[in-house]
Structure formats: structure tokens, C-alpha cells
Design goal:
heterodimer; A: 5-stranded parallel β-sheet; 29 helices; 50% helix; disordered N terminus; B: alpha/beta; 5-stranded parallel β-sheet; 3-stranded antiparallel β-sheet; 63% helix
């Protein structure tokens, strides 16, 4: 936030500028016109370039003029969260229909403010080098027909530096200033009529000031003041202090946008890694050399703003040329002109032909801006790049989501020489591989272990403790349990276990802690019972340790509600760990206040051994040992005939295992086979048998296209082979 | 410096902290809502007086078609409201009626569920009153069809029974009335579906003769919402009375005012800590409960981490505790920065004595702590006086709320700030009436304060007051009656300020014309200068005081870390820059890059950042293998890292393409 520049481009009022030029053309003479037209030829340059970059068939969308919708009622429109749907790609060439507009990527609190300035159109001709007097609009009120008056868009910020160049060389009407934060802040504060100190210690001061503002004003006003910057600043302290080693992380860094279509990037990186073992690999976006080549894009961005203005001017001219001329005569009438824009901005392209002259003239004004980008002096480049990065990220986000096609290679694990490992070998291999940085991890752990007694104290004071951070916290909690909870009643819940439910947690409390025998209609009843018991008996105390409170099974709204209510009991002490990045989203305010969390960061870097062992990773071959044992168990309890029937089906399925479109064994065929093997005597007995199988989920029936019933065993082939082998042994 | 593990018992030895928290809670839960609850109770009494008198007049009947309804405007905040409703229903059950039902929109998606909930709650509460009938109710609850008629029959049976069984029910009947009303509280009226509400109201209005029903709507937005939700035909069946509760900000102000800005509790919060707590309140939840929780954490942290907090106790006990200080603790005192500063300013022989003899040190510490106490005794009244001035000046130069002023004073010397400058300027423009009323208020505050040094100040202020009285006339604004000023003020702050400006301008013009200060102006300057001197004398920031570390809790970062944590940031830092945690030289790197020797998960994470929405596992694996040695062990480690990323929620298996995973952060699915 500190190194942020704010581009305040004082754009002169479009209409007046236009009229001014019009006068040149109409009244002043050929010389001016020729000069201007020369500029127009240049103007086509970047536009053509943009077409090269973009998809030839489909114009790139970000050239689409992004039009601010009618008047802006708020003074500061912030970027975050204000990303409207993208303006359609085809809308690009046409001038803007007040479509929804996207606000620039201001994740880091960057704010682009394009102030409209109005130029008094004087009747006397001006020299081409004359600077436009920039007049900042003041006051928060909605500006009438601000469509042209206030243009703030993603491109605005990018365009700003370029435009300043334009002005210098081409003598056009734009002035760009880089305004430091303080100045802008002062400006805001002045507007608001509140005294602002001039301190330059940014963060804390901002917070203070903001708080002050909040309270000084009545509630409604305070709402208006909830400027993003201050808000972020207020919260930003948190991030800053948290990382005492100076690695404060801004929002844009944490949630960096993906960079699409970079499949080769990975390979590149890999080769780099391979070539330079032990060396660090730069993979940060800002340092990536590729990024520099993207600079030209910015020129296109900046032009988007212009396209919009162009068309608007164009439009303006076409609809009211007479009045314009008339207005020229009355120099002070500029004020009304504003309101005319927004009204007319819906009709656009039809005038293109008739007003060609005007367009060329106008674009001549802009041309230098585009040409200049390449020759931006190095000092500026840095800034531009930074801004590029920002809005490129935004662009990339939308780009990546505009297509559903994903560009990745088609290689699959099947083709890979090395097959998938099974769970056991994986485990063994990992056992063997030494833990990296064991000493450092140990140090971290010791640091956390010194907190144990504090945790106990805080648990007793009615807080509950939640641990977060990278690395498994299983061992840490286990150590806590061993060292602190030896003589207490405690319950350990392995949340990562795939079949854990709230009900099982509640059951173990009622059955094992409260010694209650009996069932409950619903978990809520059970919870009520527990709450009642704990309230009655104040000597009851229970420590609950939950590993992975955010696991698949426990993250549901209802389970969290129940656990939260449980934890809110004064004599139930909960200490839990979370790992998922979005885990805090599980809790709304009500739940959070029930949980009464104290957060502790315990980054351990230890591998998640237990937690991931139940995951069905694509890379791990599923052993199917569980399926096999359940198969044999169920079948052992059946009659000999039934086992024979199942075996028939299994054999048939194995025979067809190479047939990828094997639908299953049809019921009629199966019956036939069973009869031949003297396993059943009637259609009905077979059906009864199948029902039994189905109840145990041993088979699945599927109806084919012809209405015939097909039978399948939903177990993979290797397991089935194992099963048959085992059966043969038994027999 | 840490305490023994059995600190739980040690903490319980320190009653001060718990007492304050308890007091805060009590203030929040009971006292602040007392007025509101009293009003509600009297409303309930009134609403069904007709029903009780069993009048049969037609007029009354017409009226009793309407359901008496209390609209309780509570403002937006869910968490604290639960508490409010709970205590409300307790109050009602104690004072008005045993039949109170609390309904939540979440539980009532349809009229049927609503009736079920309602009956369930009412009959349960009946069970509480009369436990003998336990079995009967248990069985009947299952049987009863949830309808209004069953409710009415239940009500009749219940009231009749209490009529007959007077001996056993004496206690209840003395507390409640003969036929107590049935109160149904809708906790979050806005979230209920319109249809459910309408149906319920229409149905129950049909039975209002038989069942004295009273509704209470909890409203978060504005009372207008009732008319927005209900059509006229339905809302005309309600006889609504409006009750406004204090907003949560007012709650907070009261709590800060009554607990933090007093001398009764020894522990104080430093400016930063208070700021953090207030920020969490204003930006995150508006929850007073959470504020109290944060305060509780401060107490725990202070007593736990500051070994000298033993001395943070009430005045009477200080002496005893100082005498029992061990040598180690004395050394701790000597190490305090503020104490070192103090020692440096002493003559050399005294310095030696302080640093060597424990006895002398203890005496001095006693003295210093007494000084600190006196400082606080003076600080708060003067702060309030200053607030009287600042809060009535336009634009509130030092903040509208007293807590802002408090923070400003704690932060650094308030008289060196620009705001203070502007305050003085504005104060020099005050008109006579305002100045006089302010001075009177100040006198009141100072007289009622426990500080002993204010006699002179009060005298001086009184003298000023008499001098003002002697002056005749006043400034232009004093011609405007106070009522009008107030009206202007409340109608819109701007109006008042505008007038204020105009009149001051007029006044300035006048004085410029005369070029000579009037008597009043002279006096005014004198008053402002005097106030300035008082402020400079008493409102010294606390960290300029010796031994402030004992009394002030200072580590705001701890508070932020534990109350307002950023788990994502922590995760991100650990993955991006493991050196932050693992202090190994091998991991040291410049910003943005990552060492090849970093933990597997960090490298895999970095690689995945380079990918688009979908990641081909094979490519990923290959890249990883190139990066490290291609052994089956590294293969296994890759597998583990990937499944760890899945656990952390960065990726998930995708069915879109074989052997692909989808990214879930920025650009996932």
C-alpha cells in the first residue's frame, strides 16, 4: 500500500474538448486539420496490434469500452468485489452500451481515480501546445450524467501514465499526476470536512483516524466512510504483526490469480530446477521475464478508455451539432453539456460513417499515447509494470474463466512407466524417507509445547482453543493429551476418519462419559440430554480433543452447530485443529460466539500421515482389501448354493473383463446357467437369492436399453480374482 | 518469567480479573436491558387486562380481536440477541407468565413446524412447573395434533388446574396471574416467511378470546418491516407497540464508561489494546460479548505473562504484597524500562540504594504505586471534563466518544496534537451560555470524583462561573434559545453547525470592528487557558509514568493473534516462505523464490501455482521428479505432498479429464 501511486488523470470534459476540435476543423483551416489527421493515422497502430494479439475471429474483450453506468453516487468506487460481468467480446468495436462495468483490480487497495475536468471552451483559437486547464470535480454528490464526467475503469489506471506522455508530445488534453497517498487522503478528508493529521506513519494512523471518523459521524455517514483502504489498513495490522519476521502478506499475494495456458511454464521450471540443484528457483510472477513482454497490453488497456470516449464524442457530435456550435458561442454554457451525454450514450455506431472526420481527429489526439508506451522511460516503466501486473491478473482471471476448455497435456498415469503404488508400499516408502528439517520442526514443537499450561488455563476460563497452520497437529495434540490430561475424562475425536459422525461423538459422550444406556430419537435430543446432565452435575468435566474439526464429515452446518453448542458448555473444554484453507468459513457469527475460540497458530510442518491415509488419492492404488474381506464374510454366512450362484456370476464377469462395454450378465442367461449347474430350480428362488445379494450390496442390477436386467458385481477385477482364489482354497 | 503449570489455581487466587469480567457481563446482560424489560412487562400486564376481567362488552371484544404485539427493535447483531432473548424469557417467566415460547425462523419453514415448535415449548415449560404430570404430558405430546384447538384445550386445562389446586400452586399463582398470557417470541422476524407469519396471525386472532396470546417480534432493521412483510389485512389484526433497545454501540460506550474509565479495577488497557478491541467490535461483529471476551483475554494474558502483575491489585492490598516480594521479583522491577528511566533521573546515592537494597526499593515502589493510583484518580475526572468540552464542539475535534478521547490521551501528550490545537481554538469561540453550562458540568464531575486534589480547581471554576454571571449580555449565539439549538442539532448536525458558523463569523466581525477584546472575551481566554493547564497537568499519557507496566496491559499483538487470527495468511506464508518457521540456512532465500530444498509440500505448492484450472498429475509428477532425484521414494513423497494439498483444500480430484486435479484457489471449478 505504501508504494502505490495513484494516477489521477485529469481528463478534460469530453464534450467541450470535442467542440473545441470541431471548431478547429470547421472554422480554423486546413492546416490544423491536416496535422490532426496525421495523428489519426498513427492511432491505428496499437489498435492493429491488439488485433494481432487477440483471437482473430473474436475480438479481445478487454478492448471493449467499459462504460461507467450513469451517475456515480459514491465518491470512491472500490475495486474489490465490484467486478461486474464481463462486457461481451463483440461489444468491443461498438461503442459502449452502458453495460455493467468492471472495476480495476485494486486488490491491494489501489485506487484509480479519474477525475473529470472541464474545459472552458473559449471562442478564440488556441495554439496546439496549450495545456488544458484541469479542474477537479469536488464533492461527493452524484454528478448529473456522469457517464463522461467520471471515467474510472480498469484501463483507466493503466492508461494514465501513457496519457501523460501523450500530452507532452502531442499537446493533447490530458494531464496525469502521480499523487502520493497522503495527498489523496488529505483530499478526501477535506471533502469530508474532517481534520486529518499529517502524520506519515500510515497504518496505525489510518486506523485511528478511521475509528474517529466512524464515531464522529452518525451511523449512516459512517457507512459512507467505510472506505476500503482504511478498512484494509485496520485489518492489515493484523497480518503485519502476525509475521514478525517482516513477511506481511497482502491480499493480492495470498490469492494470486492463476496464470492460464502456461503448460510449458511448468516444464521450464522443471528444467531449471533440474539444472540448478540446490539453487533457488524464481517463480514469482513479478520476477518472471515473461511478464515484461506483456507490457504492450497495457497500451490496449489504456485505449479501452479512449475508445469509449471516442464513441461518445462521436455520438455527441452527431446528435447535436447545431447546439454545440451554439454553445461555443456561449462559453459558459458548459455546465449543461454534462447532462446530455448520458442520455445519448446508448446510440452509437450508426454515426460512425458520417462522423468519420471527427473520429479521426479525435483519435489523433490519442495516438501519441499509444505510441509512447514502447518508449516509456525506465523510471516510469516500473510503475507501469506494477499496474500491469495488477490488472493483467484480473484480465487473466476472466480469460481463464471465459472458456471451458482446459489446455493440459493428455498424458495419463496409465501410460506412465511406474504404476500406482498401493497404500502399504507408499507407507513403507515414506517411513524410510527421512523427515526433512527434523531439528527445526522439533524446535517449533517445543515452542508450542511451552503453551500447554496456558491452554489449560484458558480452557478453564471458558475459551476453547483452535489450532491452525501448516503441518499435522495430531502429534502436538497427542502430546498435550499425554502431558496435561492424564487424570481427566477426555474424549479424542479423529475427525479425519471417513466414517466419523456427530452422532458417534455424542454417543461416546452419553455412553462412555455419562454411562447412559438407551437411544435417542435425534442428535438434538441427545445433545439436550447431555447439556442437561452437565448442567445438573457441576462436578462433571470433559475435555474434547478433535483432530481436524474441518474434515469432510464434520464440516456440515448441523454437525458444527451441535459441536458448537456442546463446546459452549462451561464444563466441556474443546481443543481442536483445522487445516483446510477455508475452514473458518464453516462458522457464522452465532457459531463462533458459541465456540468462543482462541486461535493459536501452530505451524508444525510435520507430514499429515494419519490425516491423509484415508484419502482416495488418484495416485494411490486402492487395495480393495476391505472389499475382499467383506465379500468373504458375507458369503460365508450363506448357503452352499448361494455361494455357487455368486461364484458363477463372478466367473462370468472375469471372463469378460477385457470387454470394456460388458454390460453384465443378463438375468435370463444367469438363470439358465444356474439351472444347468443345479443351483436353482426356479426363477423365483434365483430372484430371492439375488435380493439377498443386493441387500448386502454384493451385486448391482442395471437395466439395459432393451429392458433386460443385467447383473454386475461392483468390485474391481483383481479383488474378484483374489476372492475366487480364496474360495477355491476353501472348497 | 513464566509461572508454574498450576497457574489455574494461581489465577483463581486473583479475584480482581474475574470480578471485573463478571461485572461487565452483568452490566451487559441485565442492567442495560432492565429498562426495556420493565417496559415490556408492563405492556404485557396492560395488554390482557381485559381478558382477565373477562368483560363481555362488545367494544372490548372488538378490540380483543387484535393480538397485542410488541415490536422489539434490537438492531443488527445476531450473537448478542440470543442472550437478550434468553434473559427476556427468563424475566417473563419470573414475573409474568410461565408460558413463553421462543421461535426462530430457522426452525419454522412452515406453519405446521411453527405450531409443533410452539406446542412443544409451551408444554415443556408446563412440565417444568408441574413435574408430577410428567408422564401424562410425555405421552400426550406425541398424540396431540398440533392445532390451535389443542393449544386452547391445553391452556384451559392448565389454567383450570391451577385454579383448583391452590394449595400446591400457591407459589406459582403468587408470581403469575390468574390466567397468564401466552407469550410467543419471534426472535428474527425478518427471516420468517411471510406466509407462515400471516397464517399464524390470522389463525390466532380467531382464537384470541380463548387464548390470551401476546406476540413479541424481534426486529433487526426497522419497525416498518412489519408493514412490509404483512399485508394490511393481517397487520390490522395486530395491536403493535414499539420498544427500542439500546444500540450495541451504546452498550459498548456504557461498558467502557462504567468499567474501564474508572479507578475501581486495577488493570488498565493501553491505547493499542483498547484500539484493537474496539476495531474488532466496529469492523467484525458489533458484539459486546466478544468485547468482554477480549477483555477477559487481556486479563488472563496480563496476569499470566507479566510476573509483576502480583502488584496489580487494589490499593489496600498493595502494601502487603510489596512486602512479600522476593528478591527475584525486585530484580524484575529493576528491569522495567520505566523504572530504569526513573532511576536515571535520581541522584547517584539514591540510584545505588535503589539498585542494591531491596528494602528501599520496596518503599519506593510503594510510593510510586501510590502516585500511579493518584494519577488515575485525577485522570478520569479530568478526562470527562475535557470530553464535556470536545463533545459539544462542532466537528468533534478530539472525537465524539469519550473512548476516542481516552485513546488520544493515552497515545501521547494530547496537547501536542493538532486536534487539541483546533479544540482550543474552537473553545475560544464558545458563547457564554454554552461555556457556562460546560463549566457547571465540569464542576459536577470534579465534585463527585474521589480525587483529592480538585478542591482548588473546583474553586477556580466556580469563580469563573460567578464572573460570568456578573457579565451582562453575551455573544450572538446566546440569543438563540437552547431549545432551538437543540432542535437544530438533532434535526441535522449540519444545520446547527451552519448556524454556529454564521454566528461566530458575525461575532468575529463585530470584535474586529471594535478591535478591542470585550470583558467576556478576556474571561473566556482565561477559562480556556486554565482548562489547558489542567489538561497538561493531569492528562499525561500513562506510559510516561513510572511502573506503568505493572498496571497496563500492552501487548496488542497477542490479542489480535488470538481473537482475530488469519489462518490463510499463516498457511500461505508457511507454504511460500518456509524460512519464516524453519530457521534453516538452506531455506533462506530472497523474496518470491523458493529453495529446492524446501519441504516437499512447499515445492509442490509452488508448482501448482503455475497451473491453470486443471492440473495433469502426470506432468506435475514429472516436473517434480526432474526437480529431485527420480527414486520411488521421491515418488512417494510427491504422492504425499499432493494428498496433503488436497487435505488443505488447494486441489481436488476432477472428473473432467482422467488423472487431473482441479485447483480450488483462484480459478478452481
Amino acid at each position: 500500500m505504501l508504494n502505490k501511486y495513484r494516477a489521477v488523470s485529469e481528463q478534460s470534459c469530453v464534450g467541450c474538448q470535442l467542440t473545441f476540435i470541431y471548431v478547429f476543423i470547421c472554422n480554423l483551416g486546413v492546416r490544423w486539420a491536416r496535422q490532426l489527421r496525421r495523428g489519426a493515422a498513427k492511432a491505428l497502430g496499437p489498435a492493429a496490434a491488439s488485433r494481432r494479439h487477440g483471437n482473430p475471429g473474436r475480438p479481445r474483450a478487454w478492448l471493449a469500452a467499459e462504460v461507467p453506468p450513469a451517475p456515480f453516487s459514491r465518491r470512491w468506487q472500490e475495486g474489490v468485489g465490484r467486478r461486474g460481468p464481463r462486457v461481451g467480446g463483440d461489444a468491443r468495436q461498438s461503442a459502449p452500451r452502458c453495460g455493467p462495468q468492471r472495476w480495476g483490480g485494486s486488490r491491494g487497495g489501489r485506487r484509480v481515480r479519474v477525475r473529470a475536468a472541464r474545459e472552458r471552451a473559449s471562442a478564440s483559437p488556441r495554439p496546439p501546445q496549450g495545456r488544458w486547464v484541469a479542474r477537479g470535480s469536488q464533492g461527493p454528490g452524484p454528478r448529473g450524467g456522469g457517464g463522461g464526467a467520471r471515467a474510472a475503469a480498469a484501463g483507466g489506471g493503466l492508461g494514465a501514465p501513457a496519457m501523460s506522455q501523450a500530452e507532452r508530445k502531442g499537446g493533447a488534453a490530458l494531464e496525469v499526476k502521480f499523487v502520493p497517498d497522503e495527498a489523496v487522503l488529505r483530499h478526501i478528508a477535506d471533502d469530508a470536512g474532517i481534520k486529518v493529521r499529517k502524520d506519515k506513519t500510515p497504518l496505525t494512523v489510518n486506523v485511528k483516524r478511521f475509528v474517529k471518523k466512524l464515531d464522529t459521524l452518525s451511523d449512516d455517514e459512517a457507512q459512507e466512510f467505510l472506505e476500503e483502504k482504511d478498512y484494509v489498513a485496520a485489518l492489515g495490522i493484523c497480518a503485519q504483526d502476525l509475521m514478525e519476521n517482516g513477511s506481511s502478506v497482502g491480499g493480492s499475494e495470498v490469492y494470486s490469480f492463476q496464470t492460464p495456458k502456461r503448460s510449458n511454464k511448468m516444464a521450464e521450471l522443471a528444467s531449471e530446477l533440474a539444472q540448478t540443484p540446490g539453487q533457488s528457483v524464481a517463480s514469482d510472477h513479478s520476477e518472471c521475464p515473461e511478464k515484461i513482454t506483456k507490457t504492450p497490453q497495457s497500451s490496449k488497456h489504456s485505449s479501452s478508455n479512449k475508445v469509449q470516449q471516442k464513441s461518445k464524442k462521436n455520438d455527441f457530435m452527431s446528435t447535436t451539432p447545431y447546439r454545440l456550435r451554439k454553445r461555443l458561442a456561449a462559453p459558459d454554457a458548459y455546465l449543461e453539456s454534462e447532462s446530455e451525454y448520458s442520455a445519448s450514450c446508448s446510440e452509437e455506431e450508426d454515426d460512425e460513417e458520417t462522423q468519420k472526420e471527427v473520429i479521426t481527429v479525435l483519435s489523433s489526439l490519442k495516438t501519441p499515447a499509444k505510441a509512447k508506451v514502447a518508449s516509456t522511460p525506465p523510471s516510469r516503466k516500473k510503475v507501469t509494470k506494477k499496474k500491469d501486473k495488477m490488472s493483467n491478473l484480473v484480465e487473466e482471471y476472466f480469460e481463464a474463466h471465459s472458456t471451458s476448455k482446459v489446455l493440459t497435456s493428455d498424458r495419463t498415469l496409465q501410460k506412465l512407466r511406474k504404476r500406482r503404488l498401493n497404500q502399504q508400499t507408499l507407507h513403507d516408502l515414506l517411513e524410510k524417507s527421512p523427515l526433512a528439517y527434523a531439528a527445526e520442526i522439533e524446535e517449533l514443537n517445543q515452542q508450542y509445547e511451552s503453551l500447554f499450561s496456558k491452554w489449560m488455563l484458558q480452557l478453564h476460563l471458558g475459551f476453547n482453543i483452535v489450532l491452525y497452520g501448516l503441518g499435522s497437529k495430531h502429534d502436538l495434540l497427542e502430546k498435550f493429551r499425554i502431558s496435561m490430561l492424564q487424570d481427566t475424562v477426555h474424549l479424542v475425536v479423529n475427525g479425519y476418519f471417513p466414517s466419523i459422525t456427530v452422532r458417534s461423538i455424542l454417543n461416546s459422550i452419553t455412553e462412555e462419559v455419562l454411562d447412559h444406556i438407551g437411544t435417542f430419537r435425534s442428535p438434538l435430543d441427545q445433545l439436550e440430554f447431555i447439556i442437561k446432565r452437565f448442567k445438573e452435575d457441576s462436578s462433571l468435566e470433559l475435555y474434547v480433543l478433535i483432530h481436524n474439526l474441518d474434515s469432510q464429515m464434520l464440516r456440515g452446518e448441523r454437525s458444527q452447530q451441535i459441536l458448537a453448542q456442546l463446546s459452549s458448555l462451561p464444563s466441556v473444554y474443546l481443543i481442536a485443529s483445522i487445516d483446510h484453507i477455508n475452514a473458518p468459513l464453516m462458522w457464522d457469527q452465532a457459531k463462533q460466539s458459541l465456540y468462543n475460540w482462541l486461535w493459536y497458530e501452530t505451524t508444525t510442518f510435520s507430514p499429515y500421515v494419519e490425516e491423509t491415509s484415508y484419502e482416495n488419492s488418484l495416485l494411490v492404488q486402492q487395495s480393495g482389501s476391505l472389499a475382499l474381506s467383506s465379500l468373504t464374510h458375507v458369503l460365508r454366512s450363506l448357503t452352499l448354493n448361494a455361494r455357487g450362484i455368486f461364484r458363477l456370476l463372478a466367473q462370468y464377469q472375469l471372463e469378460n473383463k477385457d470387454n470394456p462395454s460388458y454390460p453384465g450378465l443378463s438375468f435370463q442367461d444367469f438363470y439358465q446357467q444356474c439351472r444347468e449347474a443345479f443351483l436353482v430350480n426356479s426363477d423365483l428362488t434365483l430372484r430371492a437369492q439375488l435380493t439377498e445379494f443386493r441387500d448386502h450390496k454384493l451385486i448391482r442390477t442395471k437395466r439395459g436399453a432393451d429392458g433386460v436386467e443385467y447383473l454386475l458385481i461392483p468390485v474391481d477385477d483383481s479383488t474378484l480374482t483374489d476372492f475366487l482364489e480364496k474360495e477355491d482354497e476353501d472348497v | 518469567a513464566h509461572l508454574s503449570p498450576c497457574s489455574i489455581f494461581w489465577y483463581e487466587d486473583r479475584p480482581e480479573g474475574q470480578k471485573t469480567v463478571k461485572q461487565m457481563r452483568q452490566l451487559h446482560e441485565e442492567d442495560l436491558n432492565k429498562q426495556l424489560f420493565d417496559n415490556l412487562v408492563s405492556f404485557l400486564r396492560r395488554s390482557h387486562s381485559e381478558f382477565q376481567e373477562k368483560t363481555t362488552e362488545w367494544n372490548c371484544q372488538m378490540k380483543s380481536r387484535e393480538i397485542p404485539t410488541a415490536a422489539l427493535v434490537l438492531g443488527v447483531n445476531v450473537t448478542d440477541h440470543d442472550l437478550t432473548f434468553r434473559s427476556l424469557s427468563e424475566v417473563l417467566q419470573n414475573r409474568v407468565t410461565p408460558y413463553v415460547a421462543l421461535l426462530q425462523a430457522k426452525d419454522c419453514p412452515g406453519i405446521k413446524n411453527l405450531m409443533q415448535k410452539l406446542l412443544g415449548q409451551l408444554m415443556n415449560c408446563y412440565v417444568d412447573v408441574d413435574s408430577e404430570e410428567d408422564d401424562y404430558v410425555q405421552t400426550s405430546q406425541n398424540r396431540i395434533r398440533c392445532s390451535m384447538t389443542s393449544l386452547i384445550t391445553w391452556y384451559e386445562s392448565v389454567t383450570k388446574k391451577t385454579d383448583f389446586e391452590t394449595p400446591s400452586k400457591k407459589r406459582t399463582s403468587s408470581r403469575h396471574w390468574q390466567s397468564p398470557p401466552v407469550v410467543v417470541i419471534f426472535k428474527d422476524m425478518e427471516s420468517f416467511t411471510t406466509k407462515v407469519l400471516q397464517d399464524f396471525i390470522v389463525i390466532s386472532s380467531q382464537h384470541i378470546h380463548e387464548l390470551p396470546l401476546v406476540l413479541v417480534f424481534g426486529i433487526a432493521t426497522s419497525p416498518m418491516i412489519i408493514h412490509g412483510l404483512l399485508p394490511h389485512s393481517v397487520s390490522s389484526l395486530l395491536c403493535i407497540e414499539l420498544f427500542q433497545s439500546l444500540s450495541c454501540k451504546e452498550h459498548l460506550s456504557t461498558i467502557i464508561d462504567k468499567v474501564l474509565l474508572t479507578t475501581q479495577f486495577p488493570l488498565k488497557l493501553s491505547e493499542k489494546v483498547l484500539q484493537v478491541l474496539i476495531n474488532i467490535f466496529l469492523y467484525h461483529d458489533f458484539s459486546v460479548q466478544n468485547f468482554i471476551k477480549g477483555f477477559q483475554l487481556c486479563i488472563v494474558e496480563h496476569f499470566y505473562t507479566q510476573p509483576l502483575s502480583v502488584l496489580c491489585c487494589h490499593q489496600e492490598e498493595v502494601k502487603k504484597r510489596i512486602n512479600s516480594l522476593s528478591h527475584n521479583q525486585c530484580e524484575n522491577i529493576r528491569r522495567l524500562p520505566s523504572f530504569r528511566r526513573y532511576v536515571e533521573n535520581q541522584p547517584s546515592e539514591k540510584q545505588i540504594a535503589l539498585l542494591t537494597t531491596d528494602g528501599f526499593l520496596k518503599e519506593t515502589v510503594q510510593q510510586l504505586l501510590d502516585d500511579l493510583n493518584v494519577y488515575h484518580e485525577n485522570y478520569f475526572p479530568v478526562l470527562r471534563c475535557l470530553h464535556v468540552f470536545t463533545s459539544s464542539l462542532p466537528k468533534y475535534p478530539l472525537g465524539k466518544q469519550i473512548r476516542e478521547l481516552h485513546c488520544a490521551c493515552l497515545e501521547n501528550r494530547v496537547w501536542e496534537t493538532e486536534e487539541y490545537e483546533s479544540f482550543l481554538q474552537l473553545a475560544r469561540m464558545l458563547n457564554k451560555c454554552d461555556l457556562v453550562t460546560m463549566l457547571q458540568k465540569c464542576v459536577e464531575i470534579l465534585v463527585s470524583s474521589p480525587g483529592k486534589e480538585f478542591d482548588k480547581t473546583v474553586e477556580k471554576l466556580k469563580e469563573f462561573l460567578t464572573q460570568f454571571q456578573k457579565l451582562e449580555g453575551g455573544c450572538a449565539l446566546s440569543y438563540v434559545p437552547l431549545q432551538i439549538k437543540l432542535k437544530l442539532f438533532y434535526n441535522g448536525t449540519n444545520g446547527y453547525h451552519f448556524l454556529w458558523y454564521i454566528l461566530t463569523l458575525l461575532e468575529l466581525k463585530e470584535s474586529r470592528r471594535s478591535k478591542k477584546l470585550t470583558k467576556f472575551e478576556m474571561l473566556r481566554f482565561e477559562v480556556v487557558d486554565y482548562i489547558d493547564s489542567v489538561v497538561r497537568n493531569y492528562l499525561v499519557p500513562a506510559d510516561h509514568k513510572t511502573l506503568h507496566e505493572i498496571v497496563y496491559f500492552n501487548t496488542a499483538s497477542v490479542l489480535r493473534e488470538h481473537l482475530n487470527a488469519a489462518p490463510r495468511v499463516a498457511l500461505h506464508t508457511a507454504l511460500n516462505n518456509p524460512y519464516c518457521y524453519l530457521k534453516s540456512q538452506a531455506l533462506r532465500s530472497d523474496g518470491g523464490s523458493i529453495s529446492n530444498k524446501a519441504p516437499d509440500i512447499c515445492i509442490v505448492y509452488k508448482l501448482h501455482l503455475e497451473c491453470g484450472r486443471l492440473i495433469n498429475l502426470v506432468d506435475w509428477l514429472e516436473v517434480r521428479k526432474d526437480a529431485s532425484s527420480a527414486s520411488s521414494c521421491s515418488h512417494a513423497r510427491f504422492i504425499r505432498a499432493v494428498s496433503e494439498l488436497e487435505l488443505l483444500g488447494f486441489i481436488k480430484p476432477s472428473k473432467q479429464k482422467t488423472d487431473h486435479v482441479a485447483r480450488l484457489t483462484w480459478g478452481g471449478c
